[in-house]
From TrEMBL:
This is Solute carrier family 23 member 2. Residues 24-35 have a biased composition (Basic and acidic residues). Signal peptide: none annotated. The chain crosses the membrane at residues 53-80, 92-113, 173-202, 222-242, 263-287, 325-343, 413-435, 441-460, 472-489, 509-529. Pfam families: Xan_ur_permease (PF00860). It is found in: Membrane. Belongs to the nucleobase:cation symporter-2 (NCS2) (TC 2.A.40) family. The lineage of its organism: Eukaryota, Metazoa, Chordata, Craniata, Vertebrata. It is a multi-pass membrane protein. Keywords: Membrane, Transmembrane, Transmembrane helix, Transport. GO terms for cellular component: plasma membrane.
Length: 610
């Protein structure tokens, strides 16, 4: 295959960003063994096809791990209470290690065989709503004795069976729902579904991922509002007020032996810094006995010694494996609820793909790449169900944003991040350390994160006409019903009984999942109430898809690796697979990486043959 990639140097190479990577400009765009050597675009230190130095890959891989850390740790900690594990931090640490390990595997699969963009995979909040709804059924409510720490013996077979049978139920639901996601992705059905799913469906769906969790976040923060408020203050301070303040960091480069470079520490690690400082504050208050020592007193769970035994009990190394909690079980209620979450997760991931492509200077992803990405995410959910994370996997929006901050769009950095996740999953003490975070610190973090997720959902309304009474009615009605209906069903479950237990459970799980109720009403009303494509926001939505189709001939980025599509599997039948690169794309391609106006033209350009 002959491919030509036209790359260009910035008119003024000295006008680069002030990121921490500016000291490595001499290494930019390097490829080993005579492979592609290209100048990156003006806003990128390393493009998607560039390979940074190995030490830089490791450093930035750790940074991506830390960026995703808040979301990765939050998922098992939120599930812990409904899994009857609120008084078993050691098992919580096992769940955290497992989700690290599976996220690493899924990240590597996505980079090499999926969408092939530098995008991290991890646990998703979309699955929390239906999971908590299923665990709130009378069959799965925790016994009263598991809520009392003095009555819980974490090593007893009875207690072990109590939490393991719940997570096995979640495993089975995720396994079945993941097969649906793989079918939708690899069959190309996602392209058909996106014709009917617009901003007025996505906005209430994503917003209602987090809104119903206000009660859980408030309860955790209410353990000690002073500690929770401190955590919130620190995260907001670092992420909003100090985000543009650069910290000088000593670095070494080829041109300059030793000098300092700017590093936007507060912009990249606001959650991690907030957690660490609040954690340290709790430790000081514990050592000085400023916090009460009586288990029933207000603020006791803010002490750092309530879970102190976890670090000593946790093994140094622990390898998660499929079926570690036993054989998964399946019920229709859980499956239908998780399928609703899978649909929401797919829609969100497609938006992440396009955002990631823009940030790394790649063309918009074509249909075959999107189909493959969604299919691989389904495979990732299958692995998450097999390993027993209690959750699925999806693309991480936080890490997509980190690409714009670091100005490094290389795939190899995300490969390094996947390897870091694998190592953190095997190193048992890491999961144990995060399981010891005081409860009010977690509650403060949740309040901030859930607020951001809600705002992200509402931001999808920028594509629609907000002066239209039609659109305002659809969004407002969907959000309100997504809160009101689940609240009523939770209080009156006996009113929905049909006499068939399995059907009753399916109805209850779906109607107590606000994300499903709001998303379904938004979908139904948006597709039945008359409105123009521009008014509904579908015109701008479809333009993104059209742009990606027009540029498919220029996509070297989205080909399968190692010559799979051109060297090993050249059958004409493969060209009809929805996730396979088209035959027309195998000719000579020209990909422009110049970010400035094409009318002005680049100052210098070079053609590199692959």
């Amino acid at each position: 295959m002959n491919s030509a990639i036209t790359t260009c140097e910035h008119p003024n190479p000295l006008q680069r960003g002030d990121g921490v990577l500016s000291s490595h400009e001499g290494d930019q765009g390097s490829k080993k063994d005579g492979q592609l050597k290209s100048s990156s675009s003006s806003h990128l230190a390393y493009g998607i096809l560039d390979i940074p130095p190995w030490y830089l890959c490791i450093f930035l891989g750790i940074q991506h791990f830390l960026t995703a850390l808040g979301g990765l740790v939050a998922v098992p900690l939120i599930l812990a209470k409904d899994l009857c594990l609120q008084h078993d931090p050691l098992t919580q640490s096992y769940l955290i290690s497992t989700i690290f390990f599976v996220s690493g595997i899924c990240t590597l699969l996505q980079v090499f065989l999926g969408i092939r963009l530098p995008i991290l995979q991890g646990g998703t909040f979309a699955f929390l709503g239906p999971s908590l709804a299923m665990l709130s059924l009378p069959t799965w409510k925790c016994p009263a004795w598991t809520l009392n720490a003095s009555q819980v013996n974490t090593s007893s077979p009875e207690f072990t069976e109590e939490w393991q049978k719940r997570i096995r139920e979640l495993q089975g639901a995720v396994l079945v729902a993941s097969c649906v996601q793989m079918l939708v992705g690899f069959s190309g059905l996602i392209g058909f579904l996106m014709r009917f799913i617009g901003p007025l469906t996505i906005a209430p769906t994503i917003s209602l991922m987090a809104l119903p969790l206000f009660n859980s976040a408030g309860d955790d923060a209410g353990i000690h509002w002073g500690i929770a408020a401190t955590t919130i203050f620190l995260i907001v301070l670092f992420s909003q007020y100090l985000k543009n303040i650069a910290v000088p960091v000593p670095v070494c480069g080829r041109e300059k032996k030793s000098h300092t470079s700017k590093f936007y520490l507060f912009q990249i690690f606001p959650v991690l810094l907030g957690l660490c400082i609040s954690w340290l504050l709790c430790f000081v208050l514990t050592v000085t006995d400023a916090l009460p020592s009586a288990p029933t007193a207000y603020g006791y769970l803010a002490r750092t010694d309530t879970k102190g035994s976890v670090l000593s009990q946790a093994p140094w190394f622990r390898f998660p494996y499929p079926g570690q909690w036993g054989l998964p079980t399946v019920s229709p209620a859980g499956v239908f609820g998780i399928i609703a979450a899978v649909i929401s997760s797919m829609v969100e991931s497609i938006g992440d793909y396009h955002a990631c492509a823009r940030l790394v200077g790649a063309p918009p992803p074509p249909k075959h790449a999107i189909n493959r990405g969604i299919g691989i995410e389904g495979l990732g959910c299958l692995l998450a169900g097999a390993w027993g994370t209690g959750n699925g996997t999806t693309s991480y929006s936080e890490n997509v944003g980190a690409l714009g901050i670091t100005r490094v769009g290389s795939r190899m950095v995300i490969v390094a991040a996947g390897c870091v996740l694998l190592l953190m999953g095997v190193f048992g003490k890491i999961g144990a350390a995060f399981a010891t975070i005081p409860t009010p610190v977690i509650g403060g973090m949740f309040l901030v994160m859930f607020g951001v997720i809600t705002a992200v959902g509402i931001s999808n309304l920028q594509y629609v006409d907000l002066n239209s009474s039609r659109n305002l009615f659809i969004f407002g009605f969907s959000i309100f019903c997504g809160l009101a209906i689940p609240n009523w069903v939770n209080k009156n479950p006996e009113r929905l009984r049909t006499g068939i237990l399995q059907l009753d459970q399916v109805i209850q799980v779906l109607l107590t999942t606000g994300m499903f109720v709001g998303g379904f009403l938004g979908f139904l009303l948006d597709n039945t109430i008359p409105g123009s494509l521009e008014e509904r926001g579908l015109l701008a939505w479809n333009q993104v898809q059209e742009e990606s189709e027009e540029s498919t001939k220029a996509l070297e980025v989205y080909d399968l690796p190692w010559g799979i599509s051109t060297r090993f599997c050249t059958s004409s039948c493969a060209q009809y697979l929805p996730f396979w690169p088209r035959e027309g794309e195998a000719g000579v391609r020209q990909l422009s990486l110049c970010p400035w106006d094409s009318e002005e033209g680049p100052r210098r350009a070079t053609d590199t043959r692959l």
